């Protein structure tokens, strides 16, 4: 066997191992950032308080409109989340160092398996282009910065 064949085989075996591990994890292993915070909130109530910037950039303004059209029904007004429905995106869990803008792209395109919050899986979202999601991410990042999330 040549070195390239060994390398490809090793990568395939490692990938298979990761896939098997991922699929065999119990469904209830989510780690909510603050499990007691939700118990005091009414169903559908905003999960976090959000301060809005005095002014959004032009790109973030476009993103806000797209967010309101496609995301706010679940993630709430100003991405504050809704108890029992979907998490807040204005939260340290979604800071750029943990969830990149590309993570938002993948979430919209592929959906997301629940892993931080106890709200179930997020389905893929139809009708948004990569450019739309870039504007939405710009909006979220500007609001996050206003709330001390960098």
Overall geometry:
globular
User: Which whole number gives the mean pLDDT?
Assistant: 87
CATH class of the largest domain: Mainly Alpha
β-strand number: 0
Domain module tally: 2
Major sheet attributes: none
Strand content: under 5%
State Rg. Answer: 18 Å
User: How do the SSEs run, as a string of H and E?
Assistant: HHHHHH
Could you say what the CATH topology of the largest domain is called? Cytochrome Bc1 Complex, Chain D, domain 2
Q: Specify the structural class.
A: mainly alpha
Key structural traits:
150 residues, 6 helices, Cytochrome Bc1 Complex, Chain D, domain 2, 2 domains, single chain, 0% strand, mainly alpha
Can you give a write-up of this model?
The protein is mostly helical. The chain folds into 2 domains: 1-29; 31-146, Cytochrome Bc1 Complex, Chain D, domain 2 (Orthogonal Bundle), CATH 1.10.760. 47% of the residues lie in helices and 0% in strands. The longest helix has 22 residues, at 3-24. The chain contains 6 helices and no strands.
